């Protein structure tokens, strides 16, 4: 399978590319080929692959390509000009990528985390599964937050079709994932006399999904919470300490392609773990 790896050629992104553990996780996911993409200003002449770009940019891109090739990937480097999220998503469509990887540099401490505009815009418009990889630190010191990208997965589901589509990612995650927590957050304010039935139904549905994962060799547990979705997902993240949060996004407008639902966007912005967000299935 092929991934688009977005790079701004910064020290932060190079820290992630230099993490052999992270790269091995991508390989265990099934990634064999990488399109290494950097987007330059529209005012800079750039071609595909690297004709016409500055020598410094070319050297940095070559260096990162070499790191990935030394790790065992087949790599194509691309320097393109334009709006970053449009070009990144466009390349992903062009090469039929199974995954897009975008780094998200957070502030310190973690409670002040934010998501950069490029990562946010890629997430809002991606029609391919997107891994937002956490990179912490400032200035000349950076580190990846979770080197074992998929070792422990927190899967958040509302039992919708989109959430089920996200669950299908475990087909690729069954090799790198050892543990999974399946979480359903029920909205507050329901009638008390229906509470027991509602919880039991959610627990039963989660148990069925857990059984599927157990058959894949993944140790699965379940949790049902009540409250506001984002807050409860983040509370579950703090409790279970996943390396990645897995969830689906919801398309809101065909005219504006697929926009991220507010829950997904808020989790991407505020979680400490990596986030793997899966857009709705494509209509044939």
Number of helices: 10
Mean pLDDT: 83
Q: What Rg is obtained from the alpha carbons, in whole angstroms? A: 19 Å
Number of beta-strand segments = 11
How many domains, as an integer?
A: 2
CATH-derived topology of the largest domain? Rossmann fold
Biggest sheet layout: 11 strands, mixed
* CATH class label of the largest domain: Alpha Beta
How would you portray this structure in words?
By secondary structure, the protein is an alpha/beta fold. The protein folds into two domains: 2-144, Rossmann fold (3-Layer(aba) Sandwich), CATH 3.40.50.620; 152-270, Rossmann fold, CATH 3.40.50. The chain is 37% helix and 26% strand. It has helices spanning 11-17, 20-29, 55-70, 84-94, 117-125, 161-167, 170-173, 195-215, 229-240, 262-270; strands at 2-6, 33-40, 74-81, 99-106, 130-138, 141-144, 152-156, 179-186, 219-226, 244-248, 274-278. Strands 1, 2, 3, 4, 5, 6, 7, 8, 9, 10 and 11 form an eleven-stranded mixed sheet that branches. Helix 4 crosses helix 5 and helix 9 packs parallel to helix 10 (262-270).
């Amino acid at each position: 399978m092929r991934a688009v790896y977005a790079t701004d050629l910064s020290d932060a992104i190079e820290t992630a590319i230099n993490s052999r553990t992270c790269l091995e996780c991508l390989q265990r996911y099934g990634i064999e080929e990488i399109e290494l993409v950097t987007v330059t200003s529209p005012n800079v002449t750039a071609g595909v692959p690297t004709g016409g770009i500055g020598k410094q940019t070319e050297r940095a891109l070559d260096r990162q390509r070499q790191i990935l090739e030394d790790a065992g990937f087949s790599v194509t480097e691309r320097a393109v000009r334009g709006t970053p999220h449009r070009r990144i998503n466009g390349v992903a469509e062009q090469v039929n990528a199974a995954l897009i990887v975008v780094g998200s540099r957070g502030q310190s401490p973690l409670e002040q985390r934010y998501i950069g505009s490029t990562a946010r815009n890629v997430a809002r418009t991606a029609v391919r599964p997107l891994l937002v990889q956490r990179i912490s630190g400032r200035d000349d010191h950076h580190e990846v937050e979770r080197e074992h990208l998929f070792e422990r997965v927190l899967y958040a589901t509302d039992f919708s079709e989109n959430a089920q589509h996200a669950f299908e990612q475990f087909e690729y995650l069954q090799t790198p994932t050892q543990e999974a927590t399946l979480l359903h957050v029920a909205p507050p304010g329901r009638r008390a006399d229906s509470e027991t039935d509602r919880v039991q139904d959610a627990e039963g549905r989660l148990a069925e999904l857990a059984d599927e994962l157990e058959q894949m060799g993944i140790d699965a547990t379940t949790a049902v919470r009540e409250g506001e979705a984002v807050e409860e997902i983040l509370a579950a993240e703090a409790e279970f300490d996943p390396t990645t949060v897995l969830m689906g996004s919801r398309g809101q407008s065909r005219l504006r392609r697929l926009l991220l639902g507010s829950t997904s966007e808020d989790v991407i912005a505020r979680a400490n773990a990596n986030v793997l967000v899966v857009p709705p299935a494509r209509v044939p």
